[in-house]
Amino acid sequence: MKPRLIDRILLAFVLLIFMGIMAVVVLIAANVFDSELIGDFVNDVMAGDGWNYAIRGGIILSALILFVIAVKLMFTGYKQKEPPMNRMALLSSDENGCAYVAIDTIDSLSQKLIRANNRVKDCKTSVRIHDNGTVSVSAKLTVLADTNIPELCAAMRPELKNYIETYAGVKVEQVTIVVVDTYQAAVARAN
Question: Is the pTM here over 0.85, yes or no?
Fold first, then answer.
């Protein structure tokens, strides 16, 4: 599951802060900043008079905010959600519970059967689950140019219906096949 937008923004913020800290560490290691200068700055902040309390408080507050953001990012936004019930068809229900098949499974089965036909070059399928538990399958096909389209559709509709009912276990109310394009296979030239 993709993280939510707010989680991505917070993660980017934390990473930018971390990259800034790492840049300062690298500059210190490369002797760009004098260690005495850094020590004097830390001593001035820790001295505890006037603005130094505000700076120290700001550093502590910033560190606490970054800590809370890091903990939130560590424990939220990445759990797998279960598919919503309108994306599943009921197979059976008894005293032991219920069995469902996901709409993606039905779509995958449809794709598998349709693509097995050597006359089909490409296909896009969609599955809709009705309130009564039945499904409708729609397929948009690109077929080879010399295909007899009426025969292909007439043969494929009942075959797809039976295949889904057999392997997915749900009743198929309607199968719609639309041929959206034809494909001309490239022919090798004779020299």
Answer: no
Contact 33, 27 (CB under 8 A): yes
Q: Do residues 19 and 94 both lie within one domain?
A: no
Please choose, from the candidates 123, 185, 188, the residue with its C-alpha nearest in 3D space to the C-alpha of residue 156. Answer: 123
Return all residues near 190 (Cβ < 8 A) that are at least 6 apart: none
Measure the CA–CA gap between 154 and 145, rounded to whole angstroms: 17
Range of the domain at 66: 5-75
The kind and range of the H/E element at 102 are: strand 97-102
Assess contact for 113 and 107: CB atoms under 8 A.
no
Beta-ladder partners of 129? 135
* Tens digits of residue pLDDT in 68-114: 877 777 777 555 555 555 577 776 677 888 887 888 888 999 999 99
Q: Are residues 70 and 91 in the same domain?
A: no
Q: Considering only CA atoms, give the Rg of the chain.
A: 31
Q: How far apart are CA 172 and CA 163, in angstroms?
A: 10
**Rounded Cα gap, residues 186 and 160, in angstroms:** 29
β-strand partners of 101: 89
Q: What is the pLDDT of residues 145-159, one digit of tens each?
A: 888 999 999 999 999
